[in-house]
Amino acid sequence: MNSDIVDLRSFYASPLGQAAERSITFALSAIWSNLPNERLVGLGYALPWLERFGADAERVFAFMPGTQGAVRWPQDGPSSTALVFDEELPLVDASIDRMILVHSLEHAENPRETLKEIWRVLSPAGRVVIVVPNRRGVWARFEHTPFGTGRPFSRGQITELLRDANFTPSASSDALYFPPSRRGFMMRLQPMLERTGRRFWPIFSGVIIVEAQKRLYQGLPVAKRASRRVFVPVLNPQGATRG
Description:
Layout: H1 5-13, H2 15-31, E1 39-44, H3 47-53, E2 59-65, E3 81-84, E4 96-102, H4 111-121, E5 122-133, H5 155-164, E6 167-175, H6 184-200, E7 207-214
Parallel strand pairs: 1-2, 1-4, 2-3, 4-5
Antiparallel strand pairs: 5-7, 6-7
């Protein structure tokens, strides 16, 4: 099951979603290094973190998969959003310095092909940062949040997948140690549970965050393929539910 853009926006506007955003931002800050004038792309639904980490970037784009849907971003100024197929990104080779994936890889039809396409568009020193649901975590077991949809990963699985796509994992972090409960008393306990979980049960975090660098010393076979996706515009107003 894929996350819908309407559901994603509603979740991150809720108190639980805002708490999840803060937790992921804290974990990303621990591994995010500043790259002056970088070209940054978010794939999936990465808007909260593009706003947070893209302030110093030369260019920032938000790519949203066709199965998810897209919204205009930013609200003021020219739109930097594109509706894409994640195995055929509308970018030339070696054109991006860093790409962040949130609510993306767990929904990919073929995660390895998606990572190979990201490898293609990254510069020689490019990096990819991936946020995926943790297979051992509680968040992957409840479907009232976007982290309960798609395919969860273990740390070993995401590491193996990255290496298979010619990436070298360089840093990792975790987030979402508190349970995904909307109850008021649990929300009040969230900061304490987050600190306690980070210290005592890190393997049960809600998400795994991995940064990897593009590996150049191993060649990739060149193979052309016909596109398997044709996008047809659907003129529904923004926020309309799917039929």
